[in-house]
Amino acid sequence: MAVLVFAELENGKVGRNALEVLGGARSVADKLKMEVLCCVLDGDGGQRTGELGQAGADRVIVVKVATANPSDPESYLAALAETCTGIRPVLIMFAGTPVGRQLAPRVAHRLSYGIVTDCLSIRVADDGREILLTRPIYGGKVHAVFAAREGQVITVRPRALRPLEHPYRADPQVDYVEATPRGGQPRTRVVEVHKETESGVKLEEAKVVVAGGRGIGGPEPFAMLEELAGLLGGAVGGSRAAVDAGWLPATRQIGLTGKIVSPDLYVAVAISGSSQHMAGVANSRVIVGINIDPEAPIFHSAHLGVVEDYREFVPVLIEKIKSAKAC
Amino acid sequence: MKIVVCLKQIPDPDALPSDLVIDPETGKPAANKYPLTISPFDENALEIALQLKDKVPGTQIVALSYGPESAEQTLRKALSLLADEAVLVKKETSKLEDGYGVARVLASAIRKVGLPDLVLCGRQAGDWDAGVVGFLLADELGLPCVGFVSQVVSADGNRMVFKTEIEGGWQFLEAELPVLATVTNDETNVLRMAKIKDIMMAHRRKVSVLTLSELGIDGGDLERCRVHGGLKELFTPVSTTVCEFIAGESPAEKALALLGKLREARLV
Ligand SMILES: Cc1cc2nc3c(=O)[nH]c(=O)nc-3n(C[C@H](O)[C@H](O)[C@H](O)COP(=O)(O)OP(=O)(O)OC[C@H]3O[C@@H](n4cnc5c(N)ncnc54)[C@H](O)[C@@H]3O)c2cc1C
């Protein structure tokens, strides 16, 4: 009996998402006295088995698929599902990334497993027999707790679980699985991959994030937010409303269905503070809300609130920071 | 080209959290006071279908919904935006059903209306936010699946190129038709407004209704395959955060006061 993690690499490296899921898997497996198996795609994955052991895996299974492209789940779904079928783990875990969210339901379907997505916590019940999964519903306004089925697939929300604090083991057992080639041509093909070229700080890693919402009113004032973020050493993001209006690229959306950020300082400018937006900033140390409306829901989540028209307040704030820096 | 767009009617996702109590049996708000609306990502999917229809002559759009009678409103909205056909599979229970059951129903309905070149679903519904139905539906239909699509870049003959969201960026991905795509939002796929005359016309157009038995599905079966059988508890998370409002007579005073606070917390 085992817990299985599919580790997706980030630019060829074991990134935070994989570390978090492996850390979470380790603590569940320890309580259930089970092993943690970690599946990776060959290529970069085969080079990183030691790190995966340190992150919590007892065994690493390197899946070789000739036609696999990591960002196209269709190209290796069948091989992954077959590998899982051979093992029948009690729990299969994916990070809640676009790839993980696509693979998880389909792996579940192929194994006739249960599927619960976007888990915030996974814990073994006190009697040691049930695995309890908590996930937000209705945009996070309500939380639901599920008891895992005998065979269960889950996805885990980024930043919800913690990586292990100490390396687990440096020399996990490594097995190789070669996928049997299937007849016919693959039905999907990646034509071109674009990685965000973020000048300056990456949104997910930024210590300071300044975000703008519908109340910003147009694309031009985002230059003001860029300036503020620049002064604070941070990055700019926004709400879905700002993205839908075309003021920011979709890669800058923060929230339930955008990026999950965890800065020390989050400044929400002209954002109402919907539960779906706040789902992406829950792990911020200090949240500042700047909103013209004293009744705006943002003030239920913000630690510091400024009731002002941002068009008057933000330029003054920028000026004060500049003059403080000058002396 | 033929396109099926799956649309779900949900309680307004902008509902205030303070009085949102969900009934675990139905999965819906206990008090029936929230207006019903199309799930936002399904709107994005519908817009993508409409854009294809604008570009590719002869494109037929079938709007499909599995839901209670009220879901007819959702389909009428699609008709008012010039979808060609509307099909409602009537939900016979008020009980909460899981993604497996819904995917089975949608797959049977799609087979009944004829397998299209493209099936579109929102990436997740704005009520339970699970994001599984589209992917399960692809498997039920044996179709390849492209997730997190924001745009169709090109469509010619039996291939389509999609722009899709990936971790840390985006990609262009080509797929052979037929294919299923789940849709995410960007600035190009915000649902257009219907013309008044088309809204009037839509009232007179036909919404075909299918029952589960016409699809050869036993409603009781659907309830039994519930993952939600494992649902133990629903609770409202309480925030303990108390907002400290920055005082001051002018924006300048407030800016100074805020900076002081941030400096105290060693944030600037
Ligand atoms: C399934 C689902 C997923 C979603 N995912 C996300 C997500 O990932 N991220 C996300 O952000 N949203 C998401 N949403 C949308 C979300 O529900 C809200 O609609 C959205 O966050 C609102 O954006 P907003 O706060 O910018 O706009 P609004 O709610 O319109 O708020 C604008 C605010 O600006 C203030 N304002 C106006 N003028 C000024 C001024 N001059 N100075 C100061 N303040 C001013 C107003 O008082 C108001 O509070 C999702 C919704 C659903 C259903």
Please provide a written account of the structure:
The complex is a heterodimer of chains A (327) and B (268). Chain A is of the alpha/beta class. Chain A folds into two domains: 2-179, HUPs (Rossmann fold), CATH 3.40.50; 203-326, 3-Layer(aba) Sandwich (Rossmann fold). In chain A, 27% of the residues lie in helices and 27% in strands. A seven-stranded parallel beta sheet of chain A has the order 5-9-4-1-2-3-10, with helices on both faces. In chain A, helix 5 links the parallel strand 12 (208-212) and strand 13. In chain A, helix 3 crosses helix 4 (98-111) and helix 5 (222-232) runs parallel beside helix 9. Chain A is elongated. By secondary structure, chain B is α/β, with parallel strands linked by helices. Chain B folds into two domains: 2-224, 3-Layer(aba) Sandwich (Rossmann fold), CATH 3.40.50.620; 238-268, no CATH class. In chain B, helix 2 links the parallel strand 4 (60-67) and strand 5 (85-90). In chain B, helix 2 (71-80) packs across helix 5 and helix 3 crosses helix 4 (133-141). The longest helix of chain B has 16 residues, at 40-55. Chains A and B meet through helix 4, strand 5, strand 7, strand 8 and strand 11 of A and helix 4, strand 7, strand 8, strand 9 and strand 12 of B. Flavin-adenine dinucleotide (FAD) sits between chains A (139, 213-215, 239-242, 253-258, 270-272, 274, 276-277, 280, 291-293, 296, 309-311) and B (13-14, 40, 124, 126, 129). Flavin-adenine dinucleotide sits between chains A (139, 213-215, 239-242, 253-258, 270-272, 274, 276-277, 280, 291-293, 296, 309-311) and B (13-14, 40, 124, 126, 129).
